[in-house]
Structure formats: C-alpha cells, structure tokens
Specification:
heterodimer, A: about 750 residues, alpha/beta, 7-stranded parallel sheet, globular, B: about 375 residues, 6-stranded mixed sheet, 3-stranded mixed sheet, 13 helices, 17 strands, transcription regulation (chain B)
C-alpha cells in the first residue's frame, strides 16, 4: 500500500498496516527532517523493522542528497537475516509497483569471517577467532608479497581474485544477505567478506552488528569511512549502554601478564633477527614515526572518518615520543610497564583508584610518563606491520596491555581501576584481576552521535525512556513510546504477591532463604504447570539463587509434582549444555508433553531467544532481577552516575532491574496473533516506582485488580484467559481495529484515536 | 478504542462479540450441494486422566463431559442414522476401547454411564488412543467417512513414540481428527486437527461445550480422497421370524455374547442372506449389505439440502415495530432476517433456531404455494 506520511510517499509492502506502525513512521520522519536523534519504544512483533526500512528507503528516494545511507545495527546473526529478508520484501514491492523506475538500492549484510568465508579450508573452522587468524595468515599483505617471490607460500585464491578484479567491479544493485554474498562470491570467485567490507562504503543500506560501530577496535577497521549523511539505527537497543561499556572496558589477569611476557620475548627475538638481515625496514619505520600520525589527523579534520575514542584527537597532532620510537626501546619500555603491572597485581586487598593516581604511582615507581603510554597501541600496531607477523592472534595479550596503557593515560574521567586479589565467590584462592572499567557509556557512543546526522535508538522495551538520553549523553529530537492496538487482550500481566498462606512472595535478600517463600514460589510453579499448556519459561534473578531454590524444591518434593505435568529443563552457564536443553525444551513443547525452562535473567535465554506461541504460553519472573550490588565495579559506576549525571543509585538499579524483567517477560509475546501470561512474582513489583517502569504496552493491561494476587487467584485469572485466547481468532477480527487499510487511515477520527496510542516522553 | 469495555470494566464483551460473529460466519459457510460424508465412522476418545477430576466444570469435568456426551450420542444417531460410533478412553498413559464401533446408541450410552464410576488418574496418551482408533478405522470401507473426536481435559500427553508420525499416518489414512479441549489450547492438538482437516476448539463453559459438541453432529464434507460409490442397501422390515415356524435364534450382533441377550424369534432379516439382526442400521456380517430403514435415510436429507440463508437487513429499513414471524415478538436487534422465498421476517434467535434445528422455514411451510417452490429450489 502507498502511504502519505506527512507529505512523504511511502511504499509499504503489505496490504494492511498496524496503527502503531503508522505513528512510528510519523515520529521517525520528524527526526529525519530535523536531522537529530531519537529514541522510540514499540512492542516487539508489531513490525518495527519494516516500518523503519520503508520510511527510510522512501526518505532516501525523496531526498537523495540529504540521506545517503542507512546503517542498521542489530545484535545477532538471525536478527540480521530477518532485517535482510524484510528489505528484500520491500524492494520486491517497489519493483512490482514501479517496475524499472524503482530506486537503485544496494543493501548488504556484513558479519564476521566465520559467517562469510567460502575458502574450503578456512571455513571448516568453527571458532571465529581461528577463522580470523587463518584468514589473516593467507591474506596479509606481506604473505602475498612472499607469495609473489615464492609460489609455494599458500594464499587464498578468493582474496587474490577479489584483489585483482573485484575492487573495480562494484556489486550490482540489489539486496545481499549473507547467503547471497557467499553465492555471489562463489560465482565470481571473490572473497565475500572483503567484498562486503569494501562495498559498505558505497552501499545504501548496511546491516551489521553493534560492535562494528561501537567497539573502537573493530570500528577502526570496518566503519571508519562511512558517509556522514547516514541514518544509524540501533535495534534492540535496551542494553546499548552495557555494550558501550563493555567495548571500552579491559580485564587483565595474571595469565594475561604471563602471556605478555612470552609475547615480548618472542618479539625481541624477531627484532634481533630482523636487525641481522634487514635493518633497512626498521629504519623506514622509525622515519615514519617521526613523521607522526599526521595523516590520520588530516583525515579526521576533513571529516572523512569516524573518530576513534581510543585514539583521541590530541594524540594525533603529536609525533610518537622519542623514547619508544625504535623497536628495542619500545620493547624495553613495555617490559618495564609489564613488571610494574605485575607488582600491582600482587595485592592482598581490593584496590580501587582513578587513572590519574595510577599514572602518578606508575611514574614514581618505574619512571614511566603519561605521554609515551598514550602511544602504546599505535606503536605496537606499527611494529606488528614492520615485523610482518603472521600470527596476530597470538599477540592478543600484548595488544590488550597496550590498549590498556593508551586508555588509562588518555581518560582521566569516566574510568576506574579496580584490582581484586580474589574472586568474591572464592575468597581463599588467590586470583588477582585488574578491572579497568568504563563507567560512562557515552564515551564509546559519542563519536557515533557526533558523526551521523540521525541516530535511532529503538527496542520493544526501552522504559523508562528518559533514562537513555541521560546515560548516553545525547539530546533526542523526539522520544516516544507506542502501545499495541489489539483486537483482543492477548497479554495477561499480573503481579502475584503472596502465597495461599498469605506469606508475601519476594526475592528480597533478607527473606529469600525463608522456607515459606521458597515453598510458595514452588506452589506457584506447580499450579501454573497444571493449567498452562505447552511451554512455561521461568526466570530467576541469578544462577546462585536458582541453584539454591531448585535444591530446596527438590527436597520439598515440588520438582516431582512439576514433572507430573511437564518436563523440566534448566539453563546453565555452559552454552552447549543450554542449547541442548533449549532444543529438547522445544521438542517437548512441539509434541504435547509440555515443558518448563528454568533460566536466569540477564542470561543467554533472556536476551536472544524468542518463546513465541506454544514455546512460551507463560513467563514467570521469580523476584526482581537486581544486578549483584556488592560488585566493586557496579558501585563505582553508580557513584559516577550520581556525581556526573545526577542519577540516584536506586533509580538506576531499579531501571536496570526493570528493563531486564521487561525483556524476560517480553520473550513470550512476539506478535499480535500470539498470546501469553506474564507473571511478576514479587510483591515489590506492585509498588509505584517499579510498576511505572514497566513498558507502557504491558502496563496498560496490568490493571489494579491484577496487582496483588495470591497464587489461587492468579490461577483463576489465567484459566479464564487461556480459554478465551483459545477461541478461534482470524484476521478479519483485527480489521479496522488493529489492522488498517489506506482508506481507514485517512479518516479523521482514526487519526485522533491513533494519537492516544502514543505518548511523548 | 480498539477494545470496548462494558460498564464493569470487563473485556468479556469483545471476546463474546468475536464468538457470535464466528457462529454466524459458520452458518454462512454451509453451502449446499456439497458432497458430505454421510456414512460416518466416529471414534470418541475420552480423556480419563487426573486433569478430568478438576472441578471447574460442575460437578467434575468427567461427569459433566459424560452427561453432555450422552446427549451427543443420541443427537448423533438421530442426525446420522447410517453412521457408527465407538468409544475409547485413555488414562495412565494407556488407551482402552470400551465400546466397539456400532450403530446402537443405547449400548454406547450405557457404556458412558458406567464410565462415571471409574477413577481418573495418571496422564493421557493421545498417541496410543489415536493408534487404537486407527487400527479399527483402517478396515472401514473407502466410501465411509472416518472420524475421531477427542475430548481432552489434560494439557499434556505422555506418548511412547513421536506423535508426529502418528499424525501423518492418520492423515494418510484419511481419518479426520477433531479435538475439544477443556482447558486451553495445546499445540499438538492444533497441529493434529490442522493436518487431518478436523476442527479444534476449546470450551469456555458448559454451554459452549454443548455448542461445540453439537457442531460435530452434522456430517462434515467428504474429502477428495473418499471413494464415491453406489451403495447397495437393504431395507429389512421388523419381522417376527424369517420363515413361518417361529423358532427363536441368535441374532448376528450378539453371536459372541455369553448370555442369552439377542436370543429371540424377532428381528430384522437381511433381504439378501436372511441373517438376523436386532438393531438397525448395521452392515450385514454375512454378506456385507448395508441394512437401514427408510426413515433413517430420510432424516439425512436436510444435510444435503440445507435451508437457504436468510437475507440480513437493518431493522430500520423494514419499518418501526417489526414482529418476528415465528416468535411473534417485536424485534429489538439492529438487524432482521428475511427468507427470500416467502419474504417473512425473523429475529436473530429464530433465524439461528430455524437453521440449526428446524431445517425448514415456517413461513414457506405455512402455505402450499411457497412450500412447493421451496422444494423445487432445494433440488435445483
């Protein structure tokens, strides 16, 4: 259907549109017009992706000079594939409507070598890191130079032919998913990975993972040269601050340092050898370093590349300091720094300090100044190139240390150094860890906000919206949250606050060991097992809590009762074990035996896996998933947030807990034909501060009457709900209510109704 | 507003609305001159697992179910006189055939009544019971419609093997499986019904349960793979004896029974081979002839030639103070229904009653002229 979105002609590849999709597009257009950023919350399963794509493609078609590129960032490979499929659908619709006149669009997905490689030997590797290493072994420039001299040195034929012909031959327009890229690569004999990496500079639509834009180490390689007039979309962005923080944080253990020692020894041997046979090369490198990083500086000033937070602007203006210019001196320098680090790790109690005090201490103890430290990362890279090292992967420990050195000397604020002599859980075993932790999510994402004209942050659960601009430090043009228009109430959220014996249910630390509380939780599970068909997913607040509760249930005989109705599966920290459990869980749901999956909020299951339709008829949230508050890193971050952004500790903790709870319960509902029960089993959920932080589309159906239920009452409500939902429900029932045609959209009163479905923040 | 709330703030209304719309749509779907599977062979599978002792239907799910099924069995034979029925129960992961396929409603009702005393325990096994039904249905003639109706209270099924293969076996065997769930929608049941072209429904309360059962009384359209054949039928009269000497003899239906049941001098005698039966309709065990009585066949007539749908028009169009022709009360609803043949006006309730139960329009039947023209329209 063709839509008129505020004067813009939008081609929408379906005959009907959800009201909230229409509103979503209106809001999106506003921020595109204003060239500003926005944060939008819309429930999953209401067609966020297609709304985004159709509006932005239409916008690009109408204003080809203002928006030239769409960068769509998602989290996992299946999600990438979904976006590509929707894009294909949209382009097919354009072709069908306009024939030859359809916009010339090149869209492609980019993923790691592991998912794209077609070299028969390399692609057999399972582990992503190994694939990268093998690929580098075959494609590094000096390997290829050696190959020219000596034909027995193996190279990758796909890369060779891509390098010879592929660069001049741009990808023909169209939409390329990962499979299509591989197919195209096979047909032409080109390497799909490098082809895609090259193509993203001129592609109109790029779909890839967050890390390609947020992780400075990867962004440096992949996304440096993307056009400024681009729209960046972060989908499923409810966790974006954690991604930012992770990408800037570094963890150094004693093993890392031992490996660094080996790395340095290895490097010095290499240098010695090189000195003996080819001293010229080291000399050229030295010359280059004197020249400084001026080239990079020029590039950044003329605004061609994306800024790298690890390599701040003022570093670029200077030349590499003299004391680390020659290779031996640099290694000697690193050795000294390494020794210092080893001393620091030899602590008996927890140390927490700021980067400046660390630098001062470092200067006093081993006379290392701040300036050369800042150049470590650059200097190491340069040396690796000069030495023509093949096994870059082996030197990851040393490059980690160099990164750390650069970061610690660059940022005085927003970071904290925490050295723990042992793990909290095993206080007797000495296992020193140095956490260099980023506390400010805005550092990693700042270059993105600065560079691109529109950044869209969107997810199904982004409540409370006002928190995100604060922690990411940006000013949005528009922030809005949309609810689902439903022809029938297909979600049934409820807060179960007490057991049948009236004992309050809560995972509060003081009472979580209480037998009565655990038994009530068990009763809740047993009762729900007997009335909910197929799959039930339960979330605990942590692995430890889950273990102790399940052990208690076993003793109380609750597990036996559960197994009368359903099979029981448990998520563990082992990924392989968990995916096996998931597979069998799905099988049990398929063939009618029914199953319960016990898992953990913030675990793998709670984030990436959908439990649509019969895979999750009910989600039970046992307790509020607060993050482990005793952690030093978290405490430091909370303090920082309070001082810098005036966010109170409690506000942030509740925000974080509630977004994870919303993520967990949101797993059950993935579309309008789906239905599910969402049980919040903790009396604290009913309090206003928690309840108001639940996404609006769930809150809307969480009536007061459903906020303080006992187990029995919850069972009655659920029984009735399940019977009603089982009644036949067809597409016609949705028409006019939650599905609209063009004509219905144009009517005035519909527009008024639509306004009420949305709320600005 | 997408969802309307009633004064109490309940959302029940929107669901009710959807249900009544669905009901009306179902009536509209009924088209005439469609080949129907008139000779039905139906297995009732009754869940007797622990879940059936739940008291959300009064007094218990099982008792309530059995009572409604008694009504269903009577209704079934009333509307499908040349069909047969059998009963299977499942509990404790096993399935048991409590009543063989047969055409005698009284026998089935007695069986149903005896089930009320049994205890419900364990889990049901959908697969085992379906396999058991299939074993018998497999041998039924190709022109017969093979059906299974499951009444399932449990939300789980405990099967020895992969049920998916059983489902495809039933599909290949042309067995139509329908399920009525008593609690909630179970994925595997939905799949079973979809694959085998049956219908899946879940009850809201006793009343709705009865409605759903009634839907299974009317014969379903025949599937394309059902053979079509002319069937030789015998119409035996009830006789005191085949020959003049009044000698008592065993009837064929009770040959195996140990007691003296079926030993009498009266019965129905097959016109072809003179075997004796005590009930109709039945297939002659000796020569395979289908034995029915003429009234049986006549009662199936309305399935093949259903009454035409009435035209729906707004009440305001007809004028104020409209009386329904059949119940003679003033019409309150927004729409009235008009028979195209006799142009009489009916209210919604009467319209449903006429189409669901009466199968003939009282307006047309009240004058000879319209009666004739209606009949002609039916045959054309």
């Amino acid at each position: 259907m063709k839509l008129n979105i505020d004067g813009l002609l939008v081609y929408f590849p379906y005959d009907y549109i959800y009201p909230e999709q229409y509103m979503y597009m209106l809001e999106l257009k506003k921020s595109l017009d204003a060239k500003g950023h926005c944060a939008l919350e819309m429930p999953s399963g209401t067609g966020k992706t297609i709304s985004l794509l159709s509006l932005i493609v239409a916008y690009m078609k109408a204003n080809p000079l203002e928006v030239t590129k769409l960068i769509y960032c998602s989290r996992t490979v299946p999600e990438l594939e979904k976006v590509v499929a929707e894009l294909k659908n949209l382009m097919d619709y354009y072709e069908q409507q306009l024939g030859k006149g359809k916009p010339k669009i090149l869209g492609l997905a980019l993923s790691s070598r592991k998912n794209l490689c077609i070299n028969p030997e390399v692609s057999q590797e399972r582990d992503g890191k190994n694939v990268d290493a093998l690929c580098h072994k075959l494609t590094a420039s000096f390997v290829r130079a050696n190959h020219k001299r000596d034909a027995t040195v193996p190279v990758c034929s796909f890369y060779e032919s891509y390098d010879a012909h592929g660069k001049e031959m741009p990808l023909p327009e169209g939409v390329y998913g990962l499979d299509e890229l591989q197919e195209y690569g096979r047909k032409k004999g080109f390497c799909p990975y490098f082809l895609a990496r090259h193509a993203i500079t001129h592609a109109n639509i790029v779909v890839y993972s967050y890390y390609y834009l947020l992780d400075p180490k990867i962004a440096e390689v992949v996304s440096k040269e993307l056009s400024k007039n681009a729209v960046v979309v972060f989908d499923e962005a409810h966790n974006i601050d954690n991604v930012c923080i992770e990408s800037m944080s570094i963890k150094i253990t004693r093993r890392t340092l031992d490996k660094c020692q080996q790395n340095i020894d290895g490097l010095s041997k290499q240098i010695q050898r090189l000195k003996d046979c080819d001293a010229e090369r080291l000399k050229t490198e030295y010359q280059k370093l004197v020249q400084g990083l001026r080239d990079a500086n020029i590039a950044r000033e003329t605004d061609v590349i994306l800024a790298n937070p690890v390599l701040p602007d003022d570093v670029l203006k200077e030349a590499v300091p003299g004391n680390i210019r020659t290779a031996e001196h640099f290694l000697g320098f690193m050795k000294r720094f390494l020794e210092y680090m080893k001393i620091r790790l030899r602590v008996q109690h927890v140390v927490s300090e700021s980067p400046p005090s660390f630098l001062k201490d470092c200067y006093q103890k081993v006379c290392i100044e701040r300036k050369p430290l800042r150049f470590c990362a650059e200097r190491l890279n340069s040396m690796m190139r000069t030495l023509e090292l093949v096994e870059i992967h082996d030197f990851s420990a040393l490059s980690l240390l160099c990164h750390f050195a650069t970061l610690v000397s660059t940022y005085a604020k927003g970071f904290v150094l925490i050295i723990e002599p042992f793990d909290d859980r095993t206080p007797t075993i000495s296992n020193p860890i140095l956490h260099f932790s980023c506390m400010d999510a805005s550092i990693a994402i700042k270059p993105v906000f600065d560079r691109f004209q529109t950044v869209v942050i969107t997810s199904g659960t982004l409540s409370p919206l006002e928190m995100y601009p604060r922690i990411l430090d940006f000013r949005p043009v528009t922030m809005a949250t949309f609810t689902m228009t439903l022809a029938r109430t297909c979600i049934c959220p409820m807060v179960v606050s007490k057991g049948n014996d009236q004992v309050a249910m809560t995972s509060k630390y003081e009472t979580r060991e209480d037998v009565a509380v655990i038994r009530n939780y068990g009763n809740l599970l047993v009762e729900f097992c007997s009335i909910v068909p197929d799959g039930i997913v339960c979330f605990f607040t942590s692995y430890i809590y889950m273990e102790s509760t399940v052990a208690a249930w076993y003793e109380q005989g609750i597990l036996d009762q559960v197994q009368k109705h359903k099979l029981l599966f448990i998520e563990t920290q082992d990924a392989a074990e968990t995916s096996l459990a998931l597979l069998n869980y799905q099988k049990a749901c398929e063939n009618g035996r029914g199953a319960v999956l016990l898992s953990v909020a913030r675990g793998k299951v709670s984030e990436g896996i959908d439990f649509d339709h019969h895979f999750g008829r009910a989600v039970i949230m046992f307790g509020i998933p607060y993050v482990y508050t005793q952690s030093k890193i978290l405490k430091a971050r909370l303090e920082y947030l309070r001082d810098q952004y005036q966010i109170r500790e409690n506000d942030f903790l509740t925000f974080d807990a509630m977004r994870h709870a919303a993520q967990c319960v949101g797993r059950a509902l993935r579309g309008k034909t789906d239905y599910g029960i969402m049980v919040f089993a903790d009396k604290r959920f009913a309090r206003a501060d928690k309840r108001s932080k639940i996404p609006r589309w769930i809150q809307e159906y969480l009536k007061d009457g459903l906020c303080n239920l006992s187990v029995d009452e919850a069972v009655q409500v659920s029984k009735r709900f399940l019977r009603q939902m089982a009644q036949p429900f067809s597409r016609e029932d949705q028409l006019g209510l939650s599905l609209l045609t063009v004509e219905q959209l144009d009517q005035e009163d519909t527009k008024k109704k639509l306004q009420s479905r949305m709320q600005y923040v | 507003e997408a969802i309307q709330e009633d004064e109490k703030g309940s959302l029940q209304a929107s669901v009710d609305d959807i249900i009544s719309k669905a009901k009306k749509r179902k009536l509209l779907e009924k088209i005439k001159n469609v080949r129907l599977g008139m000779m039905r062979h139906l297995f009732l599978i009754i869940d007797m697992s622990e879940a059936m002792s739940d008291q959300d239907l009064k007094p218990t799910r099982l008792l309530s179910t059995l009572k409604l099924l008694e009504y269903f069995v009577e209704e079934y034979f009333d509307q499908n006189p040349i069909s047969q029925l059998g009963i299977i129960i499942t509990k404790n992961k096993r399935a048991e055939k409590v009543s063989e396929l047969g055409g005698n409603p009284r026998r089935h009702i007695t069986t149903l009544q005896s089930l009320a005393d049994k205890v419900c325990h364990g889990e049901p096994s959908l697969q085992n019971s379906l396999e058991l039904a299939h074993q018998t249905l497999r041998h039924m003639p190709g022109h017969a419609s093979r059906e299974v109706l499951v009444v399932m209270g449990s939300l789980t099924t405990c099967d020895p093997d992969n049920i998916i293969s059983t489902i495809s076996m039933l599909r290949d065997g042309n067995v139509r499986c329908s399920v009525i769930g008593l609690a909630a929608e179970v994925c595997v049941c939905k799949k079973l019904c979809k694959e085998t072209h049956g219908s899946y429904s879940v009850i809201l309360d006793e009343c709705h349960f009865k409605d759903l059962l009634t839907q299974h009384v009317t014969p379903p359209p025949a599937t394309a793979s059902t053979e079509s054949s002319l069937i030789r039928m015998g119409f035996p009269h009830h006789q005191l004896s085949a020959d003049k000497e009044e000698r008592p003899s065993m009837c064929m239906c009770h040959l195996d029974s140990k007691n003296s049941q079926g030993f009498s001098s009266t019965g129905y005698f097959c016109p072809q081979c003179k075997s004796k039966y005590c009930e109709l309709p039945i297939e002659c065990k000796a020569c395979g002839l289908t034995l029915v009585s003429a009234p049986h066949l006549a009662r199936s007539y309305h399935h093949l030639f259903p009454l035409d749908q009435f035209r729906e028009i707004p009440t305001a169009q007809v004028g104020s103070n409209v009386l329904c022709f059949s119940c003679q009360t003033a019409v309150q609803e927004l729409n009235v229904y008009i028979c195209d043949n006799c142009e009489r006006i009916y209210c919604l309730d009467c319209d449903l009653f006429i189409h669901e139960t009466l199968h003939s329009c009282p307006g047309c039947a009240s004058s000879r002229q319209t009666q004739q023209s209606a009949k002609m329209a039916g045959f054309s």
